[in-house]
């Protein structure tokens, strides 16, 4: 997130923002935040953003008066969380695909810098809180959530909430406390530093510890699961071993291998491998002159049509169109 607020429509038209809050604004205020707003035939939006050491808080309130897709750019690597308090939104990241966030839900994802776009239903007020946490800040919580170790630094990124979670009362209360900071400038920053960490803790606890009776893994088994991931990465440009073969290679039974992979990487082995192969094919298309048909074979698609369909679904463009850009 950035104080430049460089948002545009899908066609490339920029939203023009003025500093401050609009006359007559009666919504919640993020005390000490940088504020700006836009009022046009496209939208009425108020943005408030507060920067801290290793985090950002952005409150977005308004409505789109016409059907538009807002485009932006995620400049920093880290964990992003979107909390939807009013209306719903569809968000699409180049790295991670599309998520649908309904009113009263939140999502968390870790990503490298990426293009992103959002769609909100026209002529209905929306209210959302967007949070950013740097990898350094996330390290503080690794002792409490060891699962974060496999999230931090993930390339190109990972959806921590495979499906959006409903906002529990604890998270709603902390969010309201951010909008009703009772302290003056001398102590306000310390207050936000504490609250932003408290909010992150509850979100991660909700995600990682929702089932206290889930299957447990020893440190050795966790190491074997990461070894399986390493072996799979060696087969990006070739046929990967079957799950049965992979379990023998890492000396871990198939059940624990599949469950552990899902737990620590938030996806199945097959889905993860397909994702890696598609990203590898994208790199080959952008950085080599290899024929697309040859790339299809390298990443395990015997039929070019199937590859094109999967590629377009993942990246929103065909391999040929991407190469011609």
Task: Please provide a written account of the structure.
Helix content is 36%, strand content 25%. The protein has ten helices and 14 strands. Strands 2, 3, 4, 5, 7, 10, 12, 13 and 14 form a nine-stranded antiparallel β-sheet that branches. It has a five-stranded antiparallel β-sheet with strand order 1-6-11-8-9, with no helix packed on it. A hairpin with a 3-residue loop joins strand 8 and strand 9 (97-101). Helix 2 (169-179) packs antiparallel against helix 3. It is globular, with a radius of gyration of 22 Å. The two termini are 27 Å apart. The model is unreliable at 1-5 (pLDDT under 50).
Task: Provide the fold topology.
Blueprint: E1 8-9, E2 18-19, E3 34-39, E4 43-52, E5 55-64, E6 69-74, E7 78-86, E8 89-93, E9 97-101, E10 105-111, E11 114-120, E12 126-133, H1 135-139, E13 157-159, E14 165-166, H2 169-179, H3 185-208, H4 219-233, H5 243-249, H6 254-265, H7 269-287, H8 292-298, H9 304-315, H10 319-324
Antiparallel strand pairs: 1-6, 2-3, 3-4, 4-5, 5-12, 6-11, 7-10, 7-12, 8-9, 8-11, 10-13, 10-14
Helix pairs in contact: 2-3, 4-6
How is this structure best summarized?
With 325 residues, this protein is of the alpha+beta class.
Give the mean pLDDT. Answer: 86
The count of domains is: 3
Total helical segments:
10
Q: How many individual β-strands?
A: 14
Per CATH, which architecture of the largest domain?
A: Sandwich
**What does the largest sheet look like?**
9 strands, antiparallel
Global outline:
globular
Instruction: Determine and state the CATH class of the largest domain.
Output: Mainly Beta
Radius of gyration: 22 Å
């Amino acid at each position: 997130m950035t104080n430049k607020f460089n948002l545009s429509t899908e066609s490339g038209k920029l939203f023009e923002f003025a500093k401050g809050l609009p006359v007559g604004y009666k919504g919640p205020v993020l005390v000490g935040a940088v504020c700006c707003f836009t009022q046009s035939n496209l939208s009425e939006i108020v943005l408030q953003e507060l920067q801290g050491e290793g985090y950002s808080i952005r409150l977005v309130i308004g409505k789109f008066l016409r059907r538009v897709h807002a485009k932006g750019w995620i400049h920093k690597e880290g964990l992003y969380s979107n909390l939807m308090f009013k209306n719903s939104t569809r968000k699409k990241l180049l790295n991670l695909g599309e998520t649908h966030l309904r009113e009263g839900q939140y999502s968390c994802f870790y990503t490298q810098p990426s293009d992103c776009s959002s769609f909100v239903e026209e002529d209905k007020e929306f209210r959302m809180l967007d949070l950013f946490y740097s990898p350094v800040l996330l390290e503080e919580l690794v002792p409490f959530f060891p699962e974060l170790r496999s999230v931090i630094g993930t390339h190109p990124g990972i959806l921590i909430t495979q499906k959006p979670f409903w906002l529990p009362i604890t998270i709603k209360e902390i969010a309201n406390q951010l909008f009703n900071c009772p302290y003056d400038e001398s102590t306000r920053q310390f207050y936000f530093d504490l609250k932003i960490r408290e909010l992150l803790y509850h979100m991660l606890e909700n995600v990682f510890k929702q089932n206290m009776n889930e299957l447990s893994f020893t440190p050795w088994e966790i190491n074997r699961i990461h070894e399986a991931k390493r072996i799979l990465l060696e087969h990006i440009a070739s046929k990967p071993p079957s799950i049965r073969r992979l379990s023998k290679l890492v000396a871990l039974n198939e059940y624990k291998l599949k469950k552990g992979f899902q737990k620590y990487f938030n996806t199945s082995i097959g889905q993860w491998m397909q994702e890696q192969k598609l990203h590898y094919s994208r790199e080959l298309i952008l950085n080599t002159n290899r024929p697309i048909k040859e790339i299809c074979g390298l990443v395990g698609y015997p039929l070019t049509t199937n590859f094109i369909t999967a590629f377009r679904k993942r990246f929103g463009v065909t391999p040929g169109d991407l190469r011609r850009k």
